[in-house]
Amino acid sequence: MTETAITSRDNPIFKRLKKLAESARARREARMTLLDSEHLLTAYLDAGGQPHTLVRAASFDAGKLAALAARCQQTKAIVLPDALFAELSPVATPSGVLAEAAWLNPPVIDATPLVIVLEDIQDPGNLGAMLRTGAAAGATLAVLSKGCHDPWSPKALRGGQGAQFVLPLQGGVDVAAWLNAFAGLSVALALAEDSDFYALDLGGSLALVAGNEGAGLTAAVCEAAKVRAHIPMTGRIESLNASAALAVAVFEAVRQRRT
C-alpha cells in the first residue's frame, strides 16, 4: 500500500480528519469517525467494515501495519508527523495508528429482545463500557437518549472496544416514549425503589434502563418503566457506578436465561 505524506495542517485531508476527531456534528453529518489503535481497526475489519483512510504516525513502524493494511481494500494511506498525529489522537499517548471509517449498521438480532436503554450517559468511557457490556451479554439493541454522549466519538469507541460494530444502536431517542411502546418487561435501575432486582423474572423480552452517572434516571423515565428496582448491596457504600450497575443487571438476565 502506497502512503502519501502530509506535513501541513492546511491539507484538506488533515482538516477533514481533525473535524471527525473533534466534532460530533461532523461525525453525524458524514456518518464517519476515527478508529484509534490497531485493535479497533482489527475489530472493524472483523465486523465487515472497510476503512476509508489509514493513518500512520511517522514514528510507528510501517511493517507492523502490513497485515492489517493487506486487509484494507481500496483504502487510502497517509503518514503524518508525530505532532500532527497527536492532534487527532483521543489519548495523551497516541497509538500511532488511526483509521477514518464509516459507521456500521449491524442488523437487529432475531432473538428474544434483551435491550439496554441508556439515559443521558455523558462520560464517553462509561458509555463505551456500557455498550461493550451489552455486546458481551448478547444484547439485541442499545437505545440511547438524546442526552447521551456520541457513541461514535473516538473516546467512546475506545471504551467500547468494538461494541459499536456489532451491537445495533438507536440514538437520539425519547426514552419515556420508547418505553411506553415496548411490549416486554422494562426495568428501571433506581436506588430508591423497594423492588429487589434479583427477585424479578428476566427470562422474557426485557429492557434494562440505566441513567446518568450523577443524577440517575429522570422521573418521566422511571414512570414509563413497568418496574423500578434496585440491586441489593450489603456493603457500606451508597451506590454503584452506572456502568457497573448495568453489568450486574444484564448478566443476571443472562444467568436466568441460561437456566
From TrEMBL:
Keywords in alphabetical order: Methyltransferase, Transferase
Classification of source organism: Bacteria, Pseudomonadati, Pseudomonadota, Betaproteobacteria, Nitrosomonadales
A GO molecular function held by the record: RNA binding
Domain tRNA/rRNA methyltransferase SpoU type: residue ranges: 114-250
Pfam family, one: SpoU_methylase
Stretches that traverse the bilayer: none
PANTHER family assigned to the protein according to its UniProt record, in alphabetical order: RRNA METHYLTRANSFERASE 3 (PTHR43191), RRNA METHYLTRANSFERASE 3, MITOCHONDRIAL (PTHR43191:SF2)
GO terms of biological process kind: methylation; RNA processing
Keyword GTP-binding annotated: no
Source taxon at top rank: Bacteria
Protein name per Swiss-Prot or TrEMBL: tRNA methyltransferase
